[in-house]
UniProtKB/TrEMBL annotation:
UniProt entry tagged with the keyword Membrane: yes
TM region(s), chain numbering: 7-24, 30-48, 55-75, 95-115
Keyword Acetylation: no
Keywords: Membrane, Transmembrane, Transmembrane helix
Pfam families: TMEM220
Name of the protein: Transmembrane family 220, helix
InterPro entries tied to this protein: TMEM220
Length: 124
């Protein structure tokens, strides 16, 4: 069973929009809501129009660049014994937890945009 790119884009758009909504209770909600909402928009928009490759590459670079700011916190997390903490509540004494979540979220967002580079010659 082959799933069409348009169907995958709808699924990705829904997932990233849910990610955006979940961010609304975050202290820095605006930036994270916008990041995930933009990725969601790109996924849906790609079903109707071709997003220029330069824009997709620029967004990917920005997302990965921002992720690199969180890389050291992710490395700190990888050195911990209790990996399950990543899925628990935020502990202010452990900033690597939030940094790791942000790092992984940015990588997922970059992958969502990267998927758009694999597009048909024209949008039907």
């Amino acid at each position: 069973m082959k799933i069409s790119k348009k169907s995958i884009n709808v699924i990705l758009a829904i997932i990233f929009f849910i990610f955006a909504l979940v961010q609304l209770n975050d202290p820095d909600a605006i930036i994270w809501f916008l990041i995930y909402a933009i990725v969601s928009f790109i996924c849906i928009y790609s079903n109707f129009k071709i997003v220029p490759k330069k824009i997709l590459v620029a967004v990917i670079i920005l997302l990965i660049g921002y992720a690199l700011f969180h890389l050291s916190l992710f490395i700190d997390y990888l050195k911990t014994e209790h990996k399950e903490e990543l899925f628990g509540e935020m502990v202010y004494q452990k900033p690597y937890l939030e940094g790791s979540r942000e790092f992984l979220g940015l990588l997922l967002a970059a992958l969502g945009v990267f998927y758009q580079l694999k597009r048909p010659k024209e949008v039907k």
